[in-house]
Design goal:
single chain, alpha/beta, TIM Barrel, two-stranded antiparallel sheet, 10 strands, about 15% strand, globular, binds NADP nicotinamide-adenine-dinucleotide phosphate
């Protein structure tokens, strides 16, 4: 499997990264057995997928713990990405050490801020009313990350969900950052407008998250009503689909989304591949993507997703998908925050 060096670091990530959000089990993704996690992690490593993406908030630390268990004895073969919540940036060291302990390792390959530090994103990550609400600053967060890197606890520093102005603020701290991780898939293309050009010009690699838009692009849902509320609370869907989990207040674009999925199904059938594989192969056609994150939680989906990374879809198919996804892009606009109303984006 192809590997790409992140920014100016020495960290090389595989074209696909295993998204570990479901690991450990929890409300958002449901139950997950450690046996399946072990099988997925070992099989991924055996097939050249070396990168695993987790975060301290995924299942309240259980995703990190589960990944750490699975990597026992093979940690040196893996690239581990973890993230700190913006609400925890007062004390980056404390949270980094806790992640290391849960993962059972003494270094992280990439450590990133999960979201930029601003009022809305900090509030989103903490419901603790006793929490210190004085917003930690970007300067202090990145200075702490630089210190941890100089001690060898982190190999590369990253950011996640940072827009152009926010990346400029990080650049002004003087701390080199090698990667930005943001949502990117056929129906979530907002980063193409400003973020991709900035990252390309500034040698910041891009890791695209939610390669399958939480399963929608696998074609497994025939109607919007089949999607569980947690997976339907983005701006792609009207507020009511999220059943209490949505907060964006926008009308969504579900008719257009399902038109895209139906056309993808037809193209995939023509190419004799799975719809999910087509969605992954399209992302990997984009030269600005270092790695695509896909949530693979059992051997069957992992194998299919690995096979997708070896597919080379023709340029005409890529162009056709670029065209057919335009109506969704036009309706959702260039705001890369798919969870807040476009006028309240946490990414700018
Ligand atoms: N930085 C950030 O803010 C951020 C945000 C979101 C996600 N992420 C990262 O990105 C990763 C991936 O995103 P995600 O897990 O949210 O969503 P995703 O990868 O877009 O989709 C996962 C869904 O796709 C289904 N799926 C996977 N492979 C499939 C296949 N071959 N055929 C059919 N269905 C398939 C899974 O089904 P099953 O459930 O049935 O297995 C699951 O429902 C996360 O795990 C996380 O590491 C980062």
């Amino acid at each position: 499997m192809k590997q790409t060096k992140l920014g100016q670091s020495n960290v090389h990530v595989s074209a696909m990264t295993v998204g570990c959000w479901a690991f450990g089990g929890g409300e958002y993704w449901g139950a997950q057995s450690q046996q399946d996690v072990d099988t997925v992690v070992h099989s991924a490593l055996d097939h050249g997928v070396n990168t695993f993406d987790t975060a301290e908030v995924y299942n309240a630390g259980e995703s990190e713990r589960s990944l750490g268990l699975a990597l026992k004895g093979r940690r040196d073969r893996a690239v581990i990405i973890s993230k700190i919540a913006p609400s925890n940036c007062h004390d980056v060291r404390k949270h980094c050490l806790a992640s290391l302990q849960r993962l059972g390792t003494d270094y992280l390959d990439v450590y990133m801020l999960h979201w930029p530090i601003n009022k809305l994103s900090v509030e989103h990550f903490t419901h603790d009313t006793t929490h210190d609400t004085t917003t930690p600053t970007i300067e202090s967060a990145y200075a702490q990350l630089a210190e941890l890197k100089s001690e060898g606890r982190i190999r590369a520093i990253g950011m996640s969900n940072f827009g152009r102005r926010q990346m400029q603020e990080v650049a002004a701290t003087g701390v080199p950052v090698d990667v930005n991780e943001l949502t990117y898939n056929i129906i979530s293309r907002a980063i193409e407008a400003e973020i991709v050009p900035y990252c390309t010009q500034n040698q910041i690699s891009i890791i695209g998250s939610m390669g399958l838009q939480q399963g929608v692009l696998s074609g497994k849902y025939r109607t919007p009503g089949e999607i569980r509320p947690h997976q339907a609370h983005s701006r792609h869907f009207p507020e009511h689909r999220g059943k209490g989990t949505s907060r964006h207040g926008e009308p969504g674009a579900e008719t257009e989304v399902f038109q895209v999925v139906s056309q993808l199904r037809e193209i995939a059938a023509r190419l004799r591949i799975e719809t999910a594989q087509l969605a992954i192969a399209w992302i990997l056609k984009k030269s600005f993507i270092a790695s695509t994150l896909v949530g693979s939680r059992n051997l069957e989906t992992l194998k299919s997703n690995i096979a997708a990374c070896e597919l080379q879809i023709p340029d005409e198919i890529e162009a056709e998908i670029d065209r057919l996804s335009q109506p969704v892009l036009a309706l959702l606009g260039n705001s890369p925050d798919y969870y807040e109303h476009s006028s309240k984006s946490r990414i700018y």
